[in-house]
Amino acid sequence: MTRKSQLHPVSRHGVVWLQWKLVIFLYVALSLLSLLCIHLQYYSVTMLEPLSVAGSHIHIRPRQYSGDRPKVAFLFLARRDLPLDFVWDRFFKGADQANFSVYIHSRPGFVFNEETTRSQYFYNRQLNHSIKVIWGESSMIAAERLLLAAALDDHSNQRFVLLSDSCVPLYDFGYIYRYLISSPRSFVDSFIHTKERRYSMNMSSVIPEEKWRKGSQWISVIRSHAELIVNDRIVFPVLRNSARQNLRNCIPDEHYIQTLLTMRGLESEMEPRTLTYTVWNVSGTKHEAKSWHPVTFTFGNSGPEDIQEKSINHVNYVSESRIEWCKADSKPVPCFLFARKFTKEAAMRLVSEVLIGSSKNRSLISYNRVS
Ligand SMILES: *[C@@H]1O[C@H](CO)[C@@H](O)[C@H](O)[C@H]1NC(C)=O
Ligand SMILES: *[C@@H]1O[C@H](CO)[C@@H](O)[C@H](O)[C@H]1NC(C)=O
Ligand SMILES: *[C@@H]1O[C@H](CO)[C@@H](O)[C@H](O)[C@H]1NC(C)=O
Ligand SMILES: *[C@@H]1O[C@H](CO)[C@@H](O)[C@H](O)[C@H]1NC(C)=O
Ligand SMILES: *[C@@H]1O[C@H](CO)[C@@H](O)[C@H](O)[C@H]1NC(C)=O
């Protein structure tokens, strides 16, 4: 009792003081925390995204896939909407939902929903942190890296196909799925180009000239290569800086992935060809340099005969007068699974006349095996 009466005033005073201290402490801590949150939010919006685009903050750790349902990730690089969504809708209807995933990089703020696409496969599949892309500049490869990074989040994604908004599939889903999954290699068009001088000596400290490669940007890669591209902090900054200094003629997307994989000594894990068919038109007068442009398929030149005549099953190297037939696992296969560039009208004709994915007619083009 005495102890209690003796201690009581002191302890009571102490408790009140302690309570105040606690209140003040909590107040200060909460203020600091909310300040930190605001700062972090600001930081993540203003700092992290451009940095992650630059490659400094993306890091994907490899993980072994143990499931039995490897997915193909279809990565669409779009300017705005996907005008050929009706073709893809038909294509995906022939698929098993568990066998694929879709990601779209479009301009910031563009949302794929009932109003902007006719296909439910694209609803809400746009990246929420997309960037402004200027075609042919390094922002293009930054967008490709964002797409790969997003798709790597899903561990069942094992093949990653990059497609443009004017691409169409040439076969039904099952065929394309088996083709991609059964190849243990990436499909990356990659060759040494001696005539064109896009390589700059400024890059030589990082990129040896003998590793410099050129090729189509439309790639299909296996998971380990997708991880390597997303984690790359060496080659991407060099190409970006070089593109800034040499604005007129850089086009880093035609060099980046092929050069990176070559530098890492992965040529044996690549089929050095693209799966996306393009018809090239060489134009240019005597005074201008010759330039190559992809031919756009329009309603007039996209009938069944036109498409079949293009011999989509082999690669014709016009400049080398050489025709190459394609193989996968030493078996002859068609060289191309996709084609560009198609207008809406051309794609409509393709769907209505050439019957993509019908059970009667599995492929768009008749493929004659080559012996
Ligand atoms: C973007 O955000 C929306 C809404 O939160 C979400 O439904 C969608 O899946 C996100 N996109 C991707 C590719 O994750
Ligand atoms: C889906 O994936 C499974 C397992 O890889 C495969 O057996 C099946 O044929 C695929 N289905 C389609 C429609 O591609
Ligand atoms: C190399 O870099 C320097 C400055 O860093 C720049 O002035 C020059 O134009 C560059 N050269 C080429 C060929 O890009
Ligand atoms: C090829 O390019 C030239 C000049 O740009 C053009 O006049 C011609 O129509 C093009 N051909 C095709 C098949 O697109
Ligand atoms: C595919 O369809 C076309 C006409 O639509 C037909 O001529 C052709 O024989 C068919 N091919 C096969 C393999 O059924």
Automatic annotation (TrEMBL):
InterPro entries from the xrefs? BC10-like (IPR044174), Glyco_trans_14 (IPR003406)
Classify the source by domain of life: Eukaryota
Gene Ontology CC: membrane
Q: Name one GO molecular function term.
A: glycosyltransferase activity
List residues traversing the bilayer. 20-42
The record describes its membrane topology as: Single-pass type II membrane protein
Q: Where in the cell is it found?
A: Membrane
Task: Show the Pfam families listed in the entry.
Answer: Branch
Which keywords does this Swiss-Prot/TrEMBL entry list? Glycoprotein, Glycosyltransferase, Membrane, Transferase, Transmembrane, Transmembrane helix
Where is this chain primarily localised?
membrane
What is this protein identified as?
Answer: Core-2/I-branching beta-1,6-N-acetylglucosaminyltransferase family protein
In which organism is this protein found?
Brassica carinata (Ethiopian mustard)
The organism's taxonomic lineage, starting at the top: Eukaryota, Viridiplantae, Streptophyta, Embryophyta, Tracheophyta
